[in-house]
From TrEMBL:
The lineage of its organism: Bacteria, Bacillati, Actinomycetota, Actinomycetes, Micrococcales. Residues 374-405 are annotated as: Disordered. It holds the Pfam family Esterase. The keyword Signal applies. Residues 1-34 form the signal peptide. This is Enterochelin esterase-like enzyme. InterPro entries: AB_hydrolase_fold, Esterase-like, Mycobacterial_A85_antigen. It comes from Microbacterium invictum.
Length: 446
């Protein structure tokens, strides 16, 4: 993955189908933690003193069977629907999560992690500024220090995920935005910022400083969205929030809708158990080659990247710029959703690149562009326009750029895509080895 801008003028840009490869800390595979006789994890209620609230607070903590006190694990913090207490996840009349449910997740290939069920009733700010949510202060200032002092967990933000269902999801979103370096992964479950908050994010100087900061965009490695297919309450906010995050450079890599499920505890249960199986999966491998957006047993919308050796760019001095060219690996979008699942919509694939970094300095991803291409003849599939680079006054792949899209009439079957990728840099760019990653995201669209 190198860009020598010296002798050979060659560039190498790795491709990932999720952002999990960007900044996530390496997580050893499950086998590294396994104990031969470990059959069950433990679920324990703990109490800690909250300096923020000036009182004792509680949390439920699950440690998986692989927890052995010798290998620090990543941590996931979750808040329940209704911003209820930490025990709501376990209530039979609620999501009804059991110890056996959690053990099953980690016996089925999930990366071992410690799960912390947070008291969502500490307070929330659902309609105001995300920066003024007391929930985040309790988690970051009080609960995380307690967990790190009493459990063998990793202490870096790249090894933490935060998620929540419904009201708890807004708490998670607010915390994720407010504390840019504390979490790298986000689960938005049957949730989303309300219109007033989204408008505030686009206009408030303090929030803008957060959401446009390199710390916010650069640390994100995985974002997912899950909700019931019949959720007419939070569903629109979820899609609008994903679009808003993408506008600021944070793509949602996985979007799952549960067929026949509304805005209820069933959705919360499914989201928690499935979400735990998705967090931290990209860590350690460096490149993910497949992102799946499941739509239930009736069908699925998936994106697959073919042989992924990255993109090798080659070229040289074009007079007014350095120009290096290459080809994106084959990208296949397959849509087998039924009419109910698709709900009259189609799909779209977009891509965004990270900045090109080297020991000599950094090049903005605005210097990378592409010209999308369709490799098979499929009427109705439209490729995106050429993305101009900063040399020609464009923003390049520093912002989300469309690879292709299809409407409802042409969405089914498989579309095979690629793109001519190019780097255009100033002629006086310092020689060195530069690396970047292109992240592809697949969305169902109306």
């Amino acid at each position: 993955m190198s860009i020598p801008l010296r002798a050979h003028r060659r560039a190498r840009v790795a491709i990932a189908s999720t952002a999990a490869v960007l900044l996530a800390a390496a997580v050893a595979p499950a086998a590294a933690y396994a104990e031969e006789d470990a059959a069950s994890g433990t679920l324990t209620h703990v109490t800690y003193f909250s300096d923020t609230l000036q009182r004792e607070e509680g949390a439920w903590v699950y440690v998986p069977p692989q927890y052995d006190g010798e290998h620090a694990l990543p941590t996931t913090y979750v808040s329940p629907g209704g911003c209820r207490g930490e025990g709501y996840w376990l209530e039979p009349a609620g999501p009804a999560i059991t110890l056996e449910d959690l053990d099953a997740v980690f016996s089925d290939g999930a990366v071992p992690q410690v799960l912390v069920m947070v008291n969502g009733a500490v307070g929330s700010n659902l309609l105001g500024s995300p920066l003024e949510d007391i929930y985040g202060r309790v988690v970051v200032d009080d609960l995380i220090p307690y967990m790190e002092a009493n459990f063998d967990v990793k202490t870096d933000g790249a090894s933490r995920a935060i998620a929540g269902n419904s009201c708890g999801g807004v708490q998670a979103l607010n915390t994720f935005l407010t504390y840019p370096t504390e979490f790298s992964q986000l689960g938005m479950w049957s949730t989303g910022w309300f219109p007033a908050t989204r408008a505030l994010i686009d206009s408030d100087p303090a929030i803008q400083a957060k959401i446009t900061s390199p710390e916010f965009v650069g640390r994100v490695s995985y974002v997912e969205a899950r909700d019931g297919a019949d959720d007419n309450l939070a569903g629109p906010n979820l899609l609008a929030t994903a679009e808003l995050l993408a506008k600021y450079g944070v793509e949602t890599q996985k979007y799952v809708r549960f067929p026949g499920v509304g805005h209820d505890d069933v959705a919360g249960r499914l989201a928690l158990l499935q979400g735990l199986g998705s967090f931290f999966q990209g860590a350690g491998s460096g490149i993910d080659v497949k992102a799946e957006i499941a739509e239930g047993e009736a069908g699925a919308l998936t994106l697959t990247i073919g042989a992924n050796d990255g993109v090798t760019l080659s070229g040289g001095n074009a007079g007014d710029r350095l120009r290096l060219d290459g080809v994106l690996p084959t990208v296949t979008v397959s849509d087998s959703r039924n009419a109910i699942q698709a709900a009259g919509g189609g799909w779209a694939v977009s891509g965004r690149a990270s900045n090109l970094a080297s020991s000599e300095g950094q090049l903005s991803a605005a210097h990378l562009g592409w010209t999308p291409r369709a490799l098979n003849t499929k009427p109705g599939v439209e490729t995106g326009a050429t993305t101009p680079t900063a040399i020609d006054g464009g923003s390049g792949l520093s912002t989300s750029s469309r690879l292709a899209e299809a409407g409802n009439a042409s969405r089914t079957g498989s579309a095979v895509l690629s793109a001519d990728v190019f780097l255009e840099a100033p002629v006086d760019t310092a020689g060195g080895t530069y690396t970047s990653k292109i992240t592809l995201s697949l969305f169902p669209v109306d």
